[in-house]
Amino acid sequence: MEFSRCLLGKKVLQPFKLLGILDVENIPCARDSVLYGSLGSVVAGLGHFLLTSRIRRSCDVGVGGFILVTLGCWFHCRYNYAKLRIQERIARDGIKNKILYESTHLDPERKPTTDKNSS
């Protein structure tokens, strides 16, 4: 679902916001968390209804399933995202140091040379 508005003759796509506050297009992990949460709510609510035939309690279980699955997926995805960002930063710093110290006397991979003639 794409919403667009015309700005000086150009179409500008507005981001899709869930409940008007959660921009699921630009926030990492938001889209997957909401999708898995809604699937979890359907499974939990329908499963509880098939077992007990209690409509109101099944709706409550569905809402609880949505909250639990959404938060679980959110925290798991954000943890992996943060871990990936840290690994990228470490690799970037390593490449920067490699470029900076390559072919200098501070290069840790450079083998020390000893002159036999200059004693």
Automatic annotation (TrEMBL):
Top-rank taxon, per record: Eukaryota
UniProt KW keywords: Membrane, Mitochondrion, Mitochondrion inner membrane, Transmembrane, Transmembrane helix
Pfam families registered for this protein in UniProt: Cox20
Compartments (UniProt record): Mitochondrion inner membrane
UniProt family annotation: Belongs to the COX20 family.
Protein name per its UniProtKB record: Cytochrome c oxidase assembly protein COX20, mitochondrial
Gene that produces this protein: COX20
